[in-house]
Amino acid sequence: MDGAILCELIAALADYEKLPRPTSQAAQRLVRDAYGPQPRFDTWFGLYGGKAVGYAISFYTYSTFLALPTFYLEDLFVLPDYRSMKIGKKIFMHCARVAYEQGCGRMEWQVLHWNEPALQFYNRLGGKPLSEWLPYRATRDELRDMLTTA
After folding, report:
1. What is the pLDDT of residues 26-77, one digit of tens each?
2. pTM attached to this predicted model
3. Which of 55, 72, 122, 136 is catalytic?
4. Buried-most residue among 39, 57, 61, 113 (CB within 10 A)?
């Protein structure tokens, strides 16, 4: 698959989540980081009739308490017209297989609280929401501010 297909699917995810699409500069970075000499993440595509209709992006983090890698699923998305065809499940199960075969101690992902279809999907597959952990984030500008005020 090529970077243009990946960027099209990411734009479709942005539309679904009512978020701004990646800028052209961000799209260039995505392609570089996916397919460049030192990929920063793995990309998995779901195909239907030879056409990419879904994708997942993953990377590894590390659990110091388990002393094992964690497979982190950043995105899992299937175009609306291809849902209910088990394409998302196939992509997810592929990722689960990779995590298991790579010796990961766990696989983690996040779901938007309003995305009821995704919540039901992951619950059916046996995923468990975490209640004891709160996601935190600092944007690039916030990181800059932290570094200048610390």
Report:
1. 999 999 999 999 999 999 999 999 999 999 999 999 999 999 999 999 999 9
2. 0.91
3. 122
4. 57
pLDDT digit string (tens) for 82-93?
999 999 999 999
Work out the end-to-end distance of the chain between its first and last CA atoms, rounded to an integer number of angstroms.
Answer: 44
The one-letter amino acid at 50: G
- Per-residue pLDDT tens for 12-22? 999 999 999 99
CB distance 99 to 71 below 8 Å: yes
CA 68 to chain centre: 20
57 vs 29: CA distance, rounded Å: 14
Token pair recorded at residue 63: 């659990």
- Catalytic, 122? Answer yes
CATH superfamily membership of 3-149? Gcn5-related N-acetyltransferase (GNAT) (3.40.630.30)
Helix (H) or strand (E) holding 73: strand 68-78
Sign of the alpha-carbon torsion through 125, 131, 132, 134: positive
Q: Map out the domains of the chain as residue ranges.
A: 3-149
- Whether the Cβ atoms of residue 44 and residue 56 lie closer than 8 Å to each other: yes
Does residue 1 have a pLDDT over 80? no
